[in-house]
Amino acid sequence: MRADFHKALSSGVPQLGYCVCYPSPGVVERVGPDWDWYWLDGQHGQLGYDQMLALVRACDLVSRPAFVRVPGHEPCNIGLALDMGATGVIVPCVDTPEEARAIVNAAKFPPLGKRSYGGRRPIDREGRGYSDQANSETLLIIQIETPTGIENVREIASLPGVDGLFLGPDDIMLRRCHPMSAPRSKETLGEDMHAVVTACKEVGIYSVMVGVGGEMLDLCLDMGFHMIVACGDVPSLANTSRIASDDARARVSGRSKKNPADAPSGGGVY
Q1: Does 246 reside within a domain?
Q2: What are phi and psi of 104, to 5 degrees?
Q3: Which of 38, 151, 182, 236 is 20 to 30 A from 211 in CA distance terms?
Q4: Closest CA to 161 of 91, 63, 81, 57
Q5: pLDDT tens for residues 227-248?
Q6: Is residue 95 within 8 Å of 146, Cβ to Cβ?
Q7: How far apart are CA 214 and CA 216, in angstroms?
Q8: Do the domain assignments include residue 241?
Q9: What element of type H or E holds 164?
Q10: Would you say 143 and 90 are in contact if contact means Cβ atoms under 8 Å apart?
């Protein structure tokens, strides 16, 4: 599966991802084939260790790569995510080459890094030689989320062991003094997106971005991002629920206007 995903990325066809924030492996089992990869959000999502492990296993079940976003830069969290058998790890809020180098140490085995050997699940599934190919087969994705990170983006991208850069749109917008109500668009994010994708192209690593909605997806495609988060459990639930609710309430309202005498005396619609 990992080799297939590397091949897909190398084909030049953008790989569309789905973000998971809620602890429901059944969601991945249900929609699994619809998406090319899964972003499991251990930073801002509601996911503990057991739940994350179950989600990684669900990704394996539907033959889709799992990318675990860890809460921070701590080596123990990075190693634990990779020991779950994830295809890759996403590390947030990286500002400097020094921070990125420390993260490489946590995510890659010697001689490239200092990752600790002994992941129970990789050994059980692949044997004790899993570390031989781990540095090339598992991907380290660094998130650039601040103006400082943008200033250092080329140096961070060029570090051996960094496999991709992921622009964090919300944090960079906040730090550019845009309110969260501002649209995600070329005007608010275009320059930072260009900086990230250009740095990735220069050194031959993968670029990652959130492209939810037609305008942002088109912008990501036009710029040449390799991995694009195009949906997730949060927007799927919220948007579909709202559409269904609005439709149902409109039908209820229409019937009430036609037949007011038929309305139940209690008043509520259940």
Answers
A1: no
A2: -60, -45
A3: 151
A4: 91
A5: 999 999 999 999 999 999 999 9
A6: yes
A7: 6
A8: no
A9: strand 164-167
A10: yes
Residue 155 within any structural domain of the chain: yes
SS3 114: coil
Catalytic residue list contains 44: yes
pLDDT digits (tens, 9 = 90+) for 110-160: 999 999 999 999 999 999 999 999 999 999 999 999 999 999 999 999 999
Against a cut of 0.90, is the pTM above it? yes
**Residue 152 to residue 144: CA distance in whole angstroms:** 9
Dihedral sign for Cα 219, 143, 226, 64, please. Answer: negative
What CATH code is carried by the domain that includes residue 225? 3.20.20.60
Angle separating helix axes 186-203 and 214-223, nearest 10 degrees: 30
User: Which is the catalytic residue, given 44, 73, 194, 226?
Assistant: 44
Q: Which domain holds residue 119?
A: 2-234
Distance CA 265, CA 270 (A): 13
- The DSSP element (H or E) to which 220 belongs, if any, is helix 214-223
Q: Are 141 and 165 in contact (CB under 8 A)?
A: yes
DSSP lists the bridge partners of residue 166 as 143, 208
Token couple for 264: 């139940």
